[in-house]
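Okay, can you check this protein?
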Amino acid sequence: MTRPFGKLILTLGALALLASPAWAQQRGRGGFGGGGAFFMMAPNVQKDMKLSEEQIGKVQDTLRDVAEKHRDDFGALRDVDEADRPAKMAAINKTITDEVKKGLSLSDEQSKRFDQISLQQRGVQAFADPAVASKLKLTDDQKSLIREISMAARPAGGAFNKDASKEERAEAFRKMASMRKESMTKVTALLNDDQKKAWKELTGEVIEIQQGVGRRPNN
């Protein structure tokens, strides 16, 4: 039996708080970076990625199993120096990404789209990834300014509070989405034309994640 979607979101979403100084006071559990691979639960993402009925049927269990497997890895990041945290988080995320792709037997095309949507969902945190920073050729000044924007946009965690009501979570997610959009606008304004082009190639066509549980095939 699979866990309820709401509980899965708590598990997958909590990692969005990891980079925050206040994360140690939160009760969230490890999941996927930057809001996480839970985007694969959305019906429009499953359609966009052209997942088969068999793949759709494996999404929820695969995400849950991988998240639980690496919960302790993410928990250990609390004790890592903040300057070293982005690189270590990126390494863990790469391992998780590989496991999710393998678990769902994604094709090359699906894998590429997964990477694009994943970067979109990580928001400004994606720019702290050494691989992304290298591909965009970010300057030290840009990295510093982006770090300041990212710090100011850290979520408070209300969306992942297990004791919060449905309405409180919805409002927390709404505020977080608004803050993420505002932060991305500020960051992209710092990029030159070549960097904007490179970012577009990395993220592909922007997709708005629909709320709701992805469907499972009929048995």
About this structure: The radius of gyration is 17 Å. Residues 5-203 form one domain. The CA atoms of residues 151 and 201 lie 26 Å apart. Residues 1-35, 213-219 have pLDDT under 50 and may be disordered.
